């Protein structure tokens, strides 16, 4: 009864938080897509100068929240890209946004929530790490991942000065600009130094030394590199705060003098922020903890506890705002943004939800009205395909990091195996930039998510040997890939159906054929193997290359293997497996996702954040679907074959109208 009441309460809270929301599921959609589920993982947050708006930069765009009523607006540039840098003009009328692998800086008119100016970046400069307006709002200063500073004319969008480089090495871990953009702080990759630069002259002001570049989690563990993960300036630019994987927060005078080292965190520091008056500083870590420090006394004021995963971003509201004056807003990898009273440490409100990090699995319910998506931390979100809104969130299988998170084809069952330990999510230009140091591996958990019921069974006893998991197409069998074997159980009776000794520990992925008669293990570390489930026998080796990805055709008579530089197609016959044809392509086209269209005529493959389509018969490339900003993790068709769902490390699911996509390919097919 308590669980039911709690669920109702959560649903009411979510309703209140989203009741004023626009239909942002259609904002900035690419051609062929019909909805975007999720808002993307949180990278950065900023309050407007008057405190009436909270702006959130995520892996897919910018979200603007009206603080008094919670109304949300999504801002998309039209070009997929992460948003890792935000800056308000001093009068709060203009917002600048940019980020990693994002070829533009966008200036937004916040009175109309419309694009004001687009600043196009050269290829070298397409990853922005920090932005700042000059005090008179006529100039925008940008800093990219190579340390190049560019001054832009806000009105015309033109460059005022040639780029000035303020970093002698190719890339760096973290950077920050002072509020007026006159000073840049760059953390060197060795984890020990911070260099302060004059952005106008391009000259180094001073080098700060103090963080350690190695740390140990315990007396018996090896040393690990300790990178500086976060930095921020006080509004007056006189003080800098830095946080590191060495678990310390350090305060510096920007003239070069170190003020203090603040100790108390047990996890890596992932984000830091000063209050508007510079008197207090907040720091968040991988242990889900936020600490509030008094700058003058250099003592801890309070510890804020409530988030369920890594703290990704912190920002303070200005003083004197109509609501939540001087509050601290925190964004976490648990998908929530919370407001806190920094004086008392009391949580004021869970302001919003839905900012998921990394979608690992997607499944359509058979009735065609609902979709489930599983996240990196073992939570499962249930979505209405009618309203495109979240119905509820399943959290019983939650962990810090779910190494395996698999949904059954009908969306009713969920199996996961998680870790407990610090997870750092930072610096994500080329994919989900998680760094982890798991402490404890949990047992395998099998859940029936429609009833919130955990199903006990022998699978719970293989915690230390699980490599990969898979459900059978009929949703009745759970298979586990161990170091040198494959086990499968009937989920209803708990009876072990088969135990296959593979003798080969290297292929790590596991998948059933659509008819359930074949089971394949594959992966970049070994030659793929195909097993006949009924006969308990392995087919003779049919490929001599490692398979980065694998897919069975819908009729189970063909197999597609994605190799380093091509795709090979194979026929499955009663006498064995025979090579059929080769589709040439560049290695960059593949990660570990391939799938066939429902009619078996088109092959789809992930290409980092893009989806590529090939004609199966001719091998000709048809088109590329763009819209995600980070690598694709899963491609799944609805049971009626009309909708394609793509889940990504950017924390969102894109729904695609497959009939429209097919119609676009017809002219290409006629020409073959």
SSE blueprint and pairings:
Layout: H1 2-18, E1 33-37, E2 42-47, E3 53-58, E4 62-66, E5 72-75, E6 85-88, E7 94-98, E8 104-109, E9 114-120, E10 128-133, E11 139-144, E12 148-153, E13 164-165, E14 174-177, E15 183-187, E16 193-198, E17 203-209, E18 214-215, E19 224-225, E20 228-233, E21 239-244, E22 249-253, E23 258-262, E24 269-274, E25 280-285, E26 289-294, E27 299-305, E28 311-316, E29 328-332, E30 337-340, E31 347-352, E32 359-364, E33 370-375, E34 380-384, E35 390-394, E36 401-407, E37 413-420, E38 423-425, E39 434-436, E40 440-441, E41 445-448, E42 453-454, E43 468-471, E44 477-481, E45 485-490, E46 496-501, E47 509-512, E48 518-522, E49 529-532, E50 537-538, E51 549-552, E52 558-562, E53 566-573, E54 576-584, E55 594-596, E56 602-607, E57 610-615, E58 621-625, E59 632-637, E60 643-648, E61 653-657, H2 658-670
Antiparallel strand pairs: 1-61, 2-3, 3-4, 4-5, 6-7, 7-8, 8-9, 10-11, 11-12, 12-13, 14-15, 15-16, 16-17, 18-19, 20-21, 21-22, 22-23, 24-25, 25-26, 26-27, 28-29, 29-30, 30-31, 32-33, 33-34, 34-35, 36-37, 37-40, 37-41, 38-39, 41-42, 43-44, 44-45, 45-46, 47-48, 48-49, 49-50, 51-52, 52-53, 53-54, ...
